[in-house]
Design brief:
By secondary structure, this protein is of the alpha/beta class. The protein has a single domain, classed as Glycerol-3-phosphate (1)-acyltransferase (3-Layer(aba) Sandwich). The chain is 50% helix and 16% strand. The chain has a 7-stranded mixed beta sheet with strand order 1-9-6-2-5-3-4, sandwiched between helices. A two-stranded antiparallel sheet has the order 7-8. Helix 2 (20-40) packs across helix 5.
Length: 261
């Protein structure tokens, strides 16, 4: 009975969620909620001078997939001119609309879908000289807290620096999904850490390229661990993928059903 209802509910909502008008409506409501949280919280930003220096220059700001919520109002009020990489999936398109409400333009694609197109567009944008880029190196489907190569190729081909960014919150809710998306709660303390710029030489060898990728990953993992540790928050797992997480969830549900029989 439950499965039948779920299928009918999904069949009803999926076509609606694809409608641009409905996506804009949801994005608007989400933006209002984010602004409410932002203005009720106390903010602390570390290394703001680096953000100010590169907000309107060729730079690649990277952040974990589960840590985007409160970065949106920070970059908006900070006057950043940037493009953000968004998935072609309906969820990604709605998130792109949300990003647009915070002043970020979108490039559609990912490492698994339209990667070459994203690379070409990103390189062209960065070479223009007056826009930054924002992207999650572990998106759109993981593995969590693992840096993929995309941002590094942008940096290698354009000379733009990679700047790791992270935020945390004293009061938070972690969504039950592969990236453990952190939702900051009202009346919290919001901390944001802007890392130091990391440059990649265009003539770097494959071995050096991998060493830099690992270095960036270590920096970003330390960022999130230190910031969450300050508030004694849940420790986000590494190496979770969207598909593996869904499979694990199904297996746990089936195991619970079997125990009840």
């Amino acid at each position: 009975m439950y499965k039948t209802f779920r299928k009918l509910w999904k069949a009803f909502w999926e076509p609606i969620l694809r409608l641009s008008f409905f996506q804009w409506l949801l994005a608007g409501l989400m933006a209002l909620a984010i602004w409410f949280v932002y203005f009720t919280c106390r903010k602390k930003v570390k290394n703001w001078k680096t953000f100010k220096k590169y907000r309107n220059k060729p730079a690649i700001f990277i952040f974990w997939h589960g840590r985007s919520m409160m970065l949106s109002p920070i970059v908006c009020l900070g006057g950043m001119r940037a493009y953000a990489v968004a998935s072609k999936h309906k969820d990604g398109r709605m998130m792109a609309k949300l990003q647009r409400l915070f002043g970020l333009k979108s490039i559609y694609g990912s490492t698994s879908d339209g990667g070459i197109s994203v690379l070409r567009q990103g390189v062209r944008i960065l070479r223009q000289g007056n826009f930054s880029m924002c992207m999650s190196p572990d998106g759109p489907g993981g593995p969590s807290l693992r840096v993929q190569d995309g941002a590094l190729y942008f940096a290698k081909m354009t000379g733009a620096p990679i700047i790791p960014v992270c935020y945390s919150s004293s009061k938070a809710w972690f969504q039950n999904r592969w990236d453990r998306y952190l939702v900051a709660l009202p009346f919290s303390v919001i901390t944001c850490n802007v890392g130091k710029p990391i440059f990649i030489d265009s003539r770097v060898s494959a071995e050096e390229f991998e060493n830099i990728r690992q270095k960036i990953e270590n920096i970003m993992v330390k960022q999130v661990r230190d910031m969450d540790g300050e508030f004694n928050l849940f420790k986000v797992e590494q190496d979770l993928t969207a598909s593996e997480f869904k499979k694990k969830q199904r297996e746990e549900k089936e195991a619970k059903k079997a125990m009840k029989k």
